[in-house]
Design a protein that fits this description.
By secondary structure, the protein is mostly beta strands. The chain is 0% helix and 44% strand. The strands form four sheets. A five-stranded mixed β-sheet has the order 2-9-8-4-6, with no helix packed on it. A four-stranded antiparallel β-sheet has the order 1-3-7-5, with no helix packed on it. A three-stranded mixed β-sheet has the order 11-10-14, with no helix packed on it.
Length: 184
């Protein structure tokens, strides 16, 4: 680990962009890039760009954004789309006009997993509770085309009552809908 301490540096938020898992060709996740100028003078952001081309990554940036001293400033919206499946990573760079070479290029890494699919469940499955915890089995049918481990594969199912049918939200935002009545 290398730690460099710079008085009057430019600090990034977040330290990295984690777009999570996108499960549809229409999924798009947008995260803000915020910079803090801890110097005593304003600094201009002259450009924000990907270090290597990535057709699934898009940047919304207003050229000439001014970073005032000791103020957090949003300088760009960084978006990732789920058009193509796979695990993707790279680097976004913010370039400034700071005279200190250590503050000229601010790098932020990004990662996204894209796995197209959804989970289906039996529509006649019901859950009822008098307010206490319940334990029931819910059978899900995966309509994901392939099994793939990604760094972001972790599932958390939450039931949000009252709804009919209950609304389940997976951590990965995979669509969850009832099975057609012809499926067993």
């Amino acid at each position: 680990m290398q730690i460099i301490v710079i008085k009057g540096g430019i600090h990034r938020t977040p330290d990295e962009f984690d777009f999570g898992t996108l499960v549809s060709t229409t999924d798009k996740v947008t995260l803000p890039l915020t910079l803090l100028n801890s110097a005593e003078w304003p600094v201009m952001v002259t450009d924000v760009y990907p270090l290597a081309p990535d057709p699934l990554l898009s940047l919304g940036f207003l050229k000439g954004t001014l970073l005032m001293p000791n103020v957090h400033t949003k300088v760009a919206d960084v978006s990732y789309t789920g058009r193509d499946q796979g695990y993707f990573s790279g680097m976004v760079v913010a370039r400034t006009n700071d005279s200190n070479p250590a503050n000229t290029y601010i790098e932020v890494s990004y990662a996204a997993s894209v796995l197209h699919g959804e989970f289906l469940w039996q529509p006649n499955t019901t859950f009822a509770s008098n307010g206490g915890p319940i334990s029931r089995t819910l059978t899900l049918t995966s309509k994901f085309p392939q099994v793939r481990q990604t760094p972001h594969t972790s599932w958390l199912w939450l039931c949000h009552p009252p709804s009919d049918p209950p609304l389940f939200r997976p951590l990965t935002r995979a669509p969850l809908r009832p099975l057609p009545s012809s499926d067993p």
